[in-house]
Amino acid sequence: MPIYEFHCNSCRSRVNVFQRRIDSPVGAVCSKCGSGDLTRLVSRFAVVRGEDAMLDSLDDDSLLGGVDESDPKSVAAWARKMSSRFGEEIEPEFDDMIDRMEAGEMPDDLDAGDDGDLSLGEG
Question: In the chain, what percentage of residues exceed pLDDT 70?
Fold first, then answer.
């Protein structure tokens, strides 16, 4: 069941058209202005990789390239990149710590009450 994306040439909106069957003709009109003057777009897609492929990517030098361990902003950017790359949700406490690092605080400067657990959310 495909979803086609179009650009409305009249009102410049993005229009999504759901089709029940792939072989059905696409009769699209803009849901905002009703125009039929649409241009089909190439849709974004995602590639799902298995755990082995994700673990193999740990050998990729670009994963750690450019990380300055003494710069909290650099470490925070790396942590967000890792979370995004592996599709893990960040626990609220860790997200708060990353926000503070992005503001320039070093982990040693963070609250003494932190237990130091920097794990990502459970997958």
Answer: 62
- Other Cβ atoms less than 10 A from the Cβ of 62: the count is 8
Choose among 41, 49, 12, 6: nearest CA to 27: 6
Strand order in the sheet with 38-40: 14-18, 3-8, 38-40
- pTM (2 d.p.): 0.41
Task: Please give the single-letter amino acid code of residue 122.
Answer: E
Question: CA nearest 38: which of 1, 18, 13, 20?
Answer: 13
Nearest Cα to 83, choosing from 69, 66, 71, 97?
97
Residues forming beta bridges with residue 18, ordered by sequence position: 3
Contacts of 91 (CB under 8 A, 6+ apart): 119, 120, 121
Measure the CA–CA gap between 95 and 119, rounded to whole angstroms. Answer: 10
* Cβ contact 19:1 at 8 Å: yes
- pLDDT tens string 2-49: 778 888 999 998 888 877 766 666 678 888 898 989 888 877 766 777
Closest CA to 18 of 7, 5, 30: 5
